[in-house]
Each structure stands twice: as structure tokens, then as C-alpha cells.
Amino acid sequence: MILIGTMNLTRTRETGVFYCPTCNVSQPYRLRARRPFLTLYFIPTVPIGNPELFVVCDHCKNNWDESVLHLDQAAHQQIQAAQFQDEAIRSAVLVTLQGEDISEPEIQCLIHISNVLFDRPIDREELGRLCSIARRSNIQATNYVLTVSKRWTMQQKLLALQGMFLAATAQSETIPDETLATLIEMRDLLQLSDQEFRIAIDDTLDYEMA
Q: Which domain holds residue 31?
């Protein structure tokens, strides 16, 4: 009886140092190649297909596509910053949509905080598209922030909170009870102390929306 099967063999092709997106610093890496082999009596004999290449960080043990070797720290930080800007804008949009139909002052506020506070220019057309997506997805602001804020820095958390507060007070200085409860819940989701929360909110009181 002839025993034939397959198995994957993984070998290290090269080693070096790369910028690890998880560790946020340079770390040693191994470029590994995984390839299936046809086996005869459990002994690999004939390779099947092309090898699959991937990078392993020796520190955090995360795997990456080999293209990560061409990613430098500055490029990665720029990507992270752009991702935060989009997430912060969407967070403010979701807080605004907790009320009824979005008003003109709220539209102007969202455009302004996107352009100035988050340094991410946005126009009415793009804002309308974001609102439509938010309404269709029906995702609660707290659920969204809980998911995306895990990768935010402390400074980003405070900035996002300020954007959400400004959006919540665009229509009136009096915040609806439901929205106020959401902002307080955001404090806990973002793991902010009472003092950090108050300072962030107090700083927005002097913010010029004009």
C-alpha cells in the first residue's frame, strides 16, 4: 500500500530589520516561505505550486505580507493619521445623527470641524455621502468608537471627543439628554478620567466655529 499525501513546509529565506507596524519601532524579522509538498510515506518529495512569502516580526510574532518591508515609519504614521481623521469625522457624524434630520447649522459645524479641527477638508457632497452610509448601516456612535478607538493615541482620543462635543452642540448649547448620555459613555469607552474629560470639553468652549 502506497501512502501519498501533502504537507506544508516553511523555511526562513532571509533575516533583517524592518519597521513593524504593530511594535511601531524597528524590529528583527524573518522572511519565511511556505510551500505545499507532495509526500510519499510522509516524506516530502515534490513541491506543489509557488511558495507563499510572509514576514514574521521576531518581537511581537505577527505575520505580514512581504510588502511591509518597503514600509517606512514616516509612511506608516501618515497612513495612521489619515485613518484617524476619517474615523473622527465619522464619529462626529454618528453623534449628530442621533437626533432627527440633520440641520444646516450641524452641516456647517461638521464641515468646519473636519476642515479645521481634524485637518481633513470635506465638502457637502462627501458629508452627505457619509451621512447616507451612516443611516444605512445603523451603527450606534458608541459601538463605532468602541471598535476604532483601540488604535487611537491619547491625543487623538481627546481630539475626537472634542469633535463629537462640538457636533452635539451645533444646533443648540443645550445638549439633548440622549446625546449627553452618549458623550458620557464615550468618556468611559475612551478610558478618560473625569479630569481629562472636563479639560477636553472646557477647551472646546473657547473654540471659534466661525
A: 4-71
Q: What angle do CA 185, 188, 193 make, to 5 degrees?
A: 125
Alpha carbons 95 and 84: distance in angstroms, whole number: 16
pTM of the full predicted structure? 0.68
- Only one residue has cell 501618515, namely 78
Q: What are phi and psi of 78, to 5 degrees?
A: -65, -40
- E-strand stretches of the chain: 4-20, 25-40, 43-47, 52-57, 63-64
End-to-end CA distance of the chain: 84
Residues 47 and 95 placed together within one structural domain of the fold = no
Dihedrals phi, psi of 156, to nearest 5 degrees: -65, -40
- Cα separation, 73 vs 159, in Å, equals 23
One-letter amino acid of 22: T
Per-residue pLDDT tens over the stretch 29-40: 999 998 877 677
The string over 26-59, giving b where at least 16 C-beta atoms fall within 10 Å of a residue's C-beta and e elsewhere, is ebebebbbebbbebeeeebeeeeeeeeebbbbee
Asked if the structure places residue 210 within a domain, the reply is no
> In angstroms, rounded to a whole number, what is the distance separating the alpha carbons of residues 156 and 76?
16
d(CA 164, CA 201): 10
Domain count, the chain: 2
